[in-house]
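Example 3.2
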Amino acid sequence: MVSVSEDLLSQGNAMQLRGFVPQPDAAILARLRGIGGLVLACIAVQLVFWLAINPLLFASPQRPDLIAVGNAAMATVKSPDQAGFDQATFKPIELPATDCCGPGYRLVRMQFTLDAVPPDGLALIPSIGGDNYHIRVNGEWTRQDGRLALPRPTYHGTPRTILYVSPSALKVGENRLEFVIVRASNPYFDVGKPVLAPYAQASELLAQRNFILNDYKIISYSFGLLALALAFLLLLRSEQKRFAFWVCVVLAAWSLRYHYYTWIDPPFGGPVRMVYYFVLTLTIPVAWVNLIDAWTGRPWRWLAWLTGLVWAGIAVTFYSLLSATDAGPYDQAVTLTNGAGIALGALGIIRFLWHFTTCHDDRYWEAALFLLCITLMMFDFYGEFSGGGAKGFLQTSFPFLILAFPVAFIARNIRLFRSMNEFNELLTSQLREREAELAESYARQSELARRETLVAERQRLMRDMHDGIGGQLMSLLFASRKQPIPQEALTSSLQQVIDELRLIIDSLDTVGETLGTALATFRARIEPRLSAAGIELRWDNSLPDTLDGLGPREVLQIFRIVQEAVTNVIKHANSPTLDIAIAKAEGAATSIAIAITDAGQGLAADPGNGHGIQNMQARAEAIGGSLAIDSKPSGTRVLLLVPLQAPTDASA
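Structure, written as tokens:
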């Protein structure tokens, strides 16, 4: 087998040496097909993420019945004990509130009212931006996790959990909620409105979100560290050292940054801990850009050095900025990190575009996953940069992406596990089977399409003959029974029948009219007939002259429905008046409503045996609308609702 493969490769090299290479036009065509494949793969991957993974991880939970919290006040205290609390001077605050600057302590008080103490207690989800915090309810400590003492507090304030407030700590009427907050480095103390609700209800409704914010993080970075160990083995044994190295860096930075949120007692704190966080955050985009560069197989020699120098320079800058206790340098570090992340993400996208426009590459699914990671990362950095806050798209969804990459790689390289001859034979066999299947399928589809076209066209012509020419001739017949029709009126009516026949013939292609024009034409045609039948027409059209959203086939269907309804009034209703009102549907700006109301005897008096009502219903459904008929002894009302962006009816 090896000799056969070598012979084939030797033949391929010899062909290239003799000039058997694709012509420029063929090369351009192949490259365009490659770009098209990449675009389709990117669309598919994005749809899977935003329609499947994103709702699973980021769906907004149903909110429980919240208990209102108010009268918030904040005080700076010298120590997190009763002596410090007794000396506190409170200032009222509006939630959410931010105070500057750490390190230090803050004491925040709030009040809430209970009409009755819940037997299961309350669920409390604080919205606190602090390294750690303790909680008191009515003077009773509810949460005292870890240390508050500076300079080395623990970081129990980072995890977000549902806390339990015992019924014994609560009382009917006014209750006091207090937070003692510590900051060892970050200058801001952030306080938002806490979630306070009955515990049984809140723990059930928020269980999934609580899992994502806590246990899921531990599972994720454990999974990431396992993947890192496997990547390190790949680095030791792989010939593609550059690619394997950056895979390790991406996994290490991502896993350690996730671990940061659950590392409550690290051996270092204060500015060093903040520098550690910002360096990890910056490492992620640097690693992604270089991983993409290595993945292309044609790395830019200067890219790793350039991004490495940027990373080192910013990392050194972080320590000087984050050592300050005021907000200015800290905000500068945040802006620097987010700006660098956005710029590096854009550089990664440019690197991809350059690769796929300068060479042919069929690794569409891997490329689509890389681009998804880059775009999610940029969304997170841009959210922080714009002040909207990062959603954690890349951080939270990375376990799914870690699994997706090997799947895409194995799917692309599965042919490497087969011999060359077996693979060629398999392809030949599958190609022949597929050609036979396609030929058979094409024949079936052609015959089916021909039959469906004939049936649809026959049904359409039957409806149009019934609703159009048939309706007009019946109206003429009923009018002549009541009184002789003058020669001029008879000539005009017959001319209108001829016009209808022409309209049916023209509609074989398209109507070519707007709704306003069609309705005006209909009114001009039907008003003399109604007058001849002794029926007064009251017309009310409040639609604008120009109305987008309806194509010519939809206009024809509306024309026919209104025509059939009016013909039924002439034939069956015995009504002295007919009201036609056309307007935007109430409460639905993207729909129109057409109401046709008579003061006759109702449908029950003469139900008829024709297909008029069935045809009206079918036409309404064909354009995505609805038809409602309300018939009483005092009259009948037909209401047609049509969306302005109705699907085109292939049989119209």
